[in-house]
Amino acid sequence: MKIPTDFAAFFKQAHFSELTPIQAQVYQPFLDQQSFLALAPTGSGKTLAFGMPLIQQVEAGQGIQKLILEPSQELAIQTRDVLRQLAPQLSIYAVIGGANLKRQIAQLKTKPEIVVGTLGRVSDLVQQRKLKLNRVTGVVIDEADELLSEKMDPIRALISRLDRKVQLNFFSATSAAIFSQLSQYFGREIGQFDLRGDQEFRAGLKHYFLAVPNKKKVELLQRLAHRKQKRTLVFCQSSKQLHQLAADLRYRKLYYMVLDTSDPKRRREEALRSLRQHQTSLLLTTDVAARGMDIPDLTTVINWENPQTATAYTHRSGRTGRMGRAGEVITLGNQHDYRQLQTLLRPQAITVKWAQLQAGKLQAVAKFPQKKGAPVKSQSSTKNKSRRSPKK
């Protein structure tokens, strides 16, 4: 399928020469107002996959016709910005928690054609009758595995307010048990497009494992962060672990930013802006805070410990190597952690190579670099024993 004429200029400016498989596969069914679930790898262009046909269904000046639900404030803003580039002639607004409510209500009074939002704020505005959905013809639920698994009841309550013929489209990089019951939950036929096996746009992604004891992790991270032309996202298991790592890096006077859901919205925006604008090359985060984020030219993802699920690994690794670009995923741990990771990723057919950092370069090695007598107890099951920053 050729790039739709309406979006040729956007694709040229973004240096995209063709549609990705998911974009080509769902374009016509979406235009034909079919309800479906679309599964595709991270970084395969799902936002454009629903954005292009959705925009072509919209009539300018006819009020709110499309609603897009995102799991986080940052993702809602990101999606809004992409759609605005695709359709500068339309009014597209984001309604999210943590933002000025009066300003959002004022924006809604201008009758935008498309609203992107988080479920909590959207539901609140609907209850207050400030967000009117009587003209809505389609709803997109992005990152559907997360949203439906955690918020199925309020989503169904919201959908129940709409016309029974409203088009429903769900997009996700990973599956969820609840997907098998979509038709039952929403009272209509929900088709499915599963392109997760198409890894064409993940070909540039390499997976490495670096052997390192807990007490040496911060030092190794410092060396990894000092590599030239590298922009790095470090995933921690929890907010507590994230801020402990931040304290250790602060002690070593290494510049970094933190992206944590517990931080104020303004601070999270500043952290993302700093990485996107190359003001920092190191961002510390968690699974919840960074899920779905598109950070252009991100070269490296580091797992401070093994992720707890294969789904978490998929979403973490999906922050780099997007749309066929080169990227690297580095997991830190010992030999036992490596075996655990291999077991975790075996169903996904992901090969993780042992590696060493030599002269500032990451090099794959054939044998696990372990000293004689070194312990092999999993680091993922023990508490982080990193040094604490001295009190000021």
TrEMBL record:
It comes from Bombilactobacillus apium. PANTHER family: ATP-DEPENDENT RNA HELICASE DBPA, ATP-DEPENDENT RNA HELICASE RHLE-RELATED. The keyword Phosphoprotein does not apply. This is DEAD/DEAH box helicase. One of its GO terms (cellular component) is cytosol. Residues 219-366 form the Helicase C-terminal domain. It comes from the Bacteria. SUPFAM superfamilies: P-loop containing nucleoside triphosphate hydrolases.
